[in-house]
Hints:
By secondary structure, the chain is α+β, with helices and mostly antiparallel strands. The protein is built from nine helices and seven strands, in the order H-H-H-H-H-E-E-E-E-E-E-E-H-H-H-H. It folds into two domains: 178 residues, Butyryl-CoA Dehydrogenase, subunit A, domain 2 (Beta Barrel), CATH 2.40.110; 123 residues, Butyryl-CoA Dehydrogenase, subunit A, domain 3 (Up-down Bundle). A seven-stranded mixed β-sheet has the order 5-6-2-1-3-4-7. The C terminus is likely disordered.
Amino acid sequence: MIEASLLDHLRNSAYRWAEQATIPADVVERLVAERLFKLFVPTWFGGRQSSLLEAVNLYADLARADGSIGWLVQIGAGGGFFVPSFSREIAEQLFAPEHSVIAGSGYTSGIARRVRGGYRVQGTWRFASGAQYASIFTVNARLADDGSIRAFAFDRSQVRITPDWHAFGMRATSSWTFEVHDVFVPEERSFVVGEHRWEPPLSVYQTPFLLFALSSMGAVAFGLGLAFFEEAAILFEGNPSRLDVLSIHEAQATAAWREFIALVAQISSHPPTDESIEMHRSRLAHLLNLLRQSVLDALPHCGMAVADEHTRLSRILRDFLVIWQHELLRPSRAVIPIMS
């Protein structure tokens, strides 16, 4: 699916952008050349036409090399899920260009007014990962007349971008804020997530969006978690007692990953019914929580190496912690008993 030489290059070169707000132009060009932002785009639009299972394995491999790259490819490629949301003609305009990449936001932080031929949209959206190079920005906005939610696709020239991402992890993801002011969007570039205007022959388009997104983001989390244990094993190679403890937690994370992949394979080959979506979501979330807990339980055994911001182990951990702040990956809130 992806050459080992590219993964090695990304892993060994990540220090170049680890503490920067963006990734280098030559790295972006390599990702474009490999068509990694076109995993879910049909071949006749220049895409790789991958299955969800293939993509999830690729995301995990990329995240093991570098968290920012894994996240950016997952976000950029994920935009291909919307190919059937547009007519074939519009989809070709949006997705066929070589450098076409989608960034955007799932938050409903805009207002749209119906006008003749389309909508006028205004709003501000945060955390658009990949804003550095994205050609298309998608958003959710609430319709002023009936309160329903629609999505809209803007060209880069129509949005105003503010580079305001200052997180302690995932630093190179350019997860910036963007805004539009009373921009006209024609009807054919508006859509409702999950509704299709045509049916390209890709199985991934039949996957419920919630499971598609959770599987994709979860793969990046697993890639980072497994990378954490791999890097810790390298650092503590001469400390058998510490390695013994870490290996227990790594085994738990690895077992969760195997079950996660098996579940994604099932979702990929047999798209769940509406009645089973929650069951699959709950299982995916449970496995992700097992991964999260395995890494957190391992932390006290990593000493000050994990606190030194110049070590790769620290960078992996910071990326790992930031990713869990995404609303979709947050663990369910615990019920706290009231003490009398």
